[in-house]
Amino acid sequence: MNLKQLVSKAKDKSNFTDLKAYIKFCDEYLKYITDNLQAIIVSQNENHYQFYQYKKEGNFQITRPINSNLMYDSNSFTESSKEFLKILQSIKSINKNDEAVRNILNNATYTIQQCVGSALDGLPAGQSNTARKLNGDLFEHFIRLIIREIGIDCKSGTIQVPVIVDGEPTFNMSYQHDLIIEKDSDVKVIGSIKTSSKDRIDKIFIDKFLYNKLTEKATPHIAIFLNDVQRKNTKKESEYGINSTFLPGHFKGYTVKLNPLDGVYYCDIRPNMQTEHILKDHIKKFDNLLIEDIWRFL
């Protein structure tokens, strides 16, 4: 496949109906970049991040930052993608202490989604908003497919929220959510699925507060993010670095003064999320949701 074909395929959401379709696309993209990039640019401030630069057929455009510690190459992905599906299908019986298993869950999810996003970065610059929207939609769908693969039914959609006054439902309000998990017609988990928390973190906390206030319930609210980094230009135009898009002050403020979320999960977790007070207690890698937390919510 050439880049034009890959971009065309990524633009059509009907090409991503199941997990095998995502894996196939990732395999095709990784094979393409093995020999067809103009350059791999190393981030100046965090060297394990890289940017792919396409050749003339991609107008020499440069992709989003890629974490080389998480991103599989073509050969590694061929084997890991098979294990990825096996692990998902047997998630309840796996060894929870096996770091190799946890790494496959995180790295395969990250690699697959970044292949989709990086392919969409091959769209003309004037279509960047289209690429962003498509990438976000495909990530939401991808995560829901993963959750279904472990045996939990889920959906996106609108919930009619009964507003309780004096113990009685008085009227309904409509709420749109990326992830809804129900059991016996009762909403067990509500989730937000975004490629990054940029410009969205406030709404997620407030959604939990309003939903639980209106329903007089304590329904768990979770957030699933791919990463929280974006490209920045350094002083020299030819050099590239990365910026974090995570707002630790907002996260801590809402957690302490409004309400904590019941789970926040990243494939590409930032270092401060694993070391700073409050952050390290509330933010985990994505494997923790699939192996442990989601079953506790149910």
Task: Describe this protein's structure.
The protein is an alpha/beta fold and about 300 residues long. The chain has two domains: about 5-150, no CATH class; about 155-295, no CATH class. Helices cover about 45% and strands about 25% of the residues. The protein has a six-stranded mixed sheet, sandwiched between helices. The chain has a three-stranded antiparallel sheet with strand order 1-2-3. The chain has a two-stranded antiparallel sheet with strand order 8-9.
Properties at a glance:
298 residues; alpha/beta; six-stranded mixed sheet; three-stranded antiparallel sheet; 43% helix; globular
Structure summary:
The chain is an alpha/beta fold and 298 residues long. The chain is 43% helix and 24% strand. The chain is built from nine helices and eleven strands.
- Structural class call reads alpha/beta
Please count the beta strands (DSSP E, at least 2 residues each).
Answer: 11
The proportion of residues forming helix, as a percent range, comes to 40-55%
CA radius of gyration: 20 Å
In whole angstroms, the N-to-C terminal distance is 43 Å
Strand order of the largest sheet: 4-5-6-7-10-11
